[in-house]
């Protein structure tokens, strides 16, 4: 890997911790972008656009970094994008909607160095058990849901609500590490890790 550090364009401590988890040294800068959802824009397109906007905003604050990384995560239910709840009341309402059913989580990661731009998407399905109103209220009172898309944190207390996950745990948490590592490898070497896709091979 190149010795220059990566620039993480994110105010999310989770994303920094996830990069640490796979040994990617980085410098953090906040990336303020307009997160308005466009009418008719698919959730996957929305998170990819925002991840790239954040990476571009981060790159504008570069020093000697090799590239800037941006990410975005959205919880999707019945075609609606559930972002971060504005207050406790909205958090409870989101949790009531998620209770006892499955939803989708779209997470995108983007890299740019001002010339090249690459984006990868991770999509997961998360099954919640039913959460009784009193339990929802207790969870919201912990404060955990308030800065999280969809009003929950898989890595926190909300783990007890999750019956099943199909997809990427790190993606649900905010930064899909498989896609991130693959993108960094491709960025630095021009080839994907392992030289190809394992699932293309014969079993
Ligand atoms: C669903 C879910 C989301 N989240 C978090 C990840 C993100 O921080 C947040 C989604 O909001 P984002 O807008 O993707 O990110 P952010 O505003 O926190 O950070 P930045 O834009 O500066 O990069 O929700 C969890 O921590 N756990 C979860 O299980």
UniProtKB/TrEMBL annotation:
The record marks 14, 73, 155 as: Important for substrate specificity. It is an enzyme of class 3 (hydrolase). Its EC number is 3.6.1.9. The active site is at residue 72. Keywords: Cytoplasm, Hydrolase, Nucleotide metabolism. GO terms for molecular function: dTTP diphosphatase activity; UTP diphosphatase activity. This is dTTP/UTP pyrophosphatase. Nucleoside triphosphate pyrophosphatase that hydrolyzes dTTP and UTP. May have a dual role in cell division arrest and in preventing the incorporation of modified nucleotides into cellular nucleic acids. Belongs to the Maf family. YhdE subfamily. GO terms for biological process: nucleotide metabolic process. GO terms for cellular component: cytoplasm. Coiled coil: none annotated.
């Amino acid at each position: 890997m190149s010795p220059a550090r990566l620039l993480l364009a994110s105010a999310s401590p989770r994303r920094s911790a996830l990069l640490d988890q796979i040994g990617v040294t980085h410098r953090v800068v906040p990336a303020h972008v307009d997160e308005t959802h466009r009418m008719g824009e698919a959730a996957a397109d929305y998170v990819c656009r925002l991840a790239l906007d954040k990476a571009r905003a981060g790159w504008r604050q570069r020093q000697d970094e090799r590239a800037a990384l941006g990410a975005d995560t959205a919880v999707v239910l019945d075609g609606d994008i559930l972002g971060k709840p504005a207050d406790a009341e909205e958090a409870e309402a989101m949790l009531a909607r998620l209770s006892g059913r499955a939803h989708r989580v779209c997470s995108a990661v983007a890299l740019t160095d001002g010339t090249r731009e690459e984006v990868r998407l991770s999509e997961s399905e998360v099954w919640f058990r039913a959460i009784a109103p009193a339990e929802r209220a207790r969870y919201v009172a912990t404060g955990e849901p308030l800065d999280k898309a969809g009003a929950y944190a898989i890595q926190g207390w909300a783990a007890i609500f999750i019956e099943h996950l199909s997809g990427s745990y790190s993606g649900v948490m905010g930064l899909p590490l498989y896609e991130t590592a693959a993108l960094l490898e491709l960025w630095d070497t021009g080839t994907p890790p392992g030289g190809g896709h394992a699932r293309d091979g014969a079993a």
